[in-house]
Design a protein that fits this description.
7-stranded parallel sheet, binds ligand ME8, alpha/beta, 628 residues, 41% helix, 19 helices, Isoleucyl-tRNA Synthetase, Domain 1
Amino acid sequence: MTKYVTTPIYYVNDVPHIGHAYTTILCDMFKRYQVLKGNECVLLTGTDEHGQKIENSAKLKQKSTQEYADEISFKFQNLWNNFGIAYDYFVRTTDKYHDIGVKYAFEEMYRNGDIYKGHYEGNYCISCETFFTKRQLVDEFFCPDCGKETTPLKEESYFFRLSKYENKLLEWYKENPNIILPLHKKNEIIKFIEGGLSDLSITRSGFKWGISLPPFVNDDKHIIYVWLDALLSYITPLGFGNDNLNKMYFFNDATHFVGKDILRFHAIYWPAFLMSLNLPLPKKIYAHGWWTRDGAKMSKSVGNVINPEEIANTYGLENMRYFLIREVPFGQDGDFSRKALIERSNSELSDTLGNLLSRLLGMGEKYFNLTIESNNFDYLKNEIDEVAIIIESLEYYMENMMPNRYLEELWKIFNIANLSITKYAPWDMMKEQKVDDVATLLVFVANILAKGSLLLYPILPNSSKEIMKSLGVDFSHYNKIILDNELINTFKLTKIPPLFPKIEKPAIETNINKINLKDEINIKQFDKIDIRVGKILEAKRIEKSNNLLVLNIDFGESIGTRQIVSGIANFYKPENINGVLACAIINLKPSKIMGVLSQGMILTTEDSKGNLSLLSVYSNTELGSKIG
Ligand code: ME8
């Protein structure tokens, strides 16, 4: 059966950043893994272009909404093309077939008795395009998901009978316990459903940028809620509501990759919509964690987003792919650090893998003119067995969405190869005329690289092919050397340039300086930033975070005490900064960072290696003094 894998379709309110690249690369990895195993796999990505957030962003840029959506959608598409993402569908919610499919779905749900008209009263977060009840809000006004201020809303609306699907959803999860990974995320979803599902408002009025209701409803005051519209983009390009496209059977084996922020939409609303439409339900929903920057969520307004294109151009596309997949266990949050990327690239890609290939090619050329042969591997039996056990374990890690563990284990076989070169010292064996033993060792190393390069294909498709080319192997060897665990006896090697040149420090520093230059502002804009001196009264670590501290800061009588979250835990022990006079922006919109309210931002310096240091005032300045 063909497998079908989807990225979320990304909002066009902003240009792509490293988080979008992460999800898309994971899906690309998933598809390539399936292809490697001989399965057919179809990958869908795209852009989510309707809703109030997009309309507002276009207005800010003084562009027509469609023109603005086109511009950003092309940026996403171009980026995936430049990154060689193997997508088969790029859906845009402004595509005509999508409009037809969404209207059709609304009509089907309506006719199945799942839609009724009522009134919505509550709050709406434009940033998350989500409805919230008063009870769900933080401090009466703020979005529990992103921390931004919500808008009170009271409007006529059509509702989807989500409550009707409460038990059906629970039964589905009971019968299929492994749909959501990681498993603890599934438990959160089940708890949420058990807490009771309210019917879902699925239309909006008051603005026009969306899909109108199907003509039979005869109501032009409303447009379809952006999440119903967006989720349906997983099936409209396959022909839902539009027989000409005729690929709906792909949806029989669907896997959705999402960030944890949007799991609820995929694990509750989406299956309920599919149940209402009598369609198959997804087979897997994989929810990954957040990439943060110094512990804080990336956002353009804070100016801390990481541009994936710049990272790929500076350090190499495959180095970036490797880092994103290897650095953080799937499902957990991770802080994006250039320093860590460089360290992993230099030690794991250059020193272990790249160097192994260079050693093989170097010795293969010097001792055997690039043709190596052997059919008796007796003296390497232990090493061969060890490699076989590791390779056999790998499938488990990929099938259970633990790609970082997959890589960690895979690297063990490269280590075995490097260690065996050191242990058996072929240069000494040559002096002792043990030419056959040297050939055997090199054929063994070449086999490890052949197996390893095939298994690396999902993560490093280009380097994997380069290695295969230099060894003279290809995908047709998969059954023999991976499934049947056999060894190849003869290699005709081809020399290739070093695969992962070391990343040198100066290159890093220049690039950091380049990207840190922000857009010019005028004095009026600068004047809007209220920076004050405050005394740190208390600092505490935030549980589950490696780098966040929550600080209680006294800004003097007129301002009072504020709570500020800061990503400095790797650089300061909480007890060492009590009493420090720090500088902080106090008029930044409050937001929640890892669930903790932050009412400002502490100023720090960041050097080229990513080290942070608190900006503080050493004289006896009055608390609350202005900086500017
Ligand atoms: O939510 N770390 O679109 P979106 C990791 N249009 N992943 C991140 C990330 C980060 N810091 N930031 C974003 C939407 N992502 C809806 C989806 S689907 C029918 C509609 C990734 O542009 C992650 O996959 O806000 C997250 O779920 C997605 O981008 C959100 O993208």
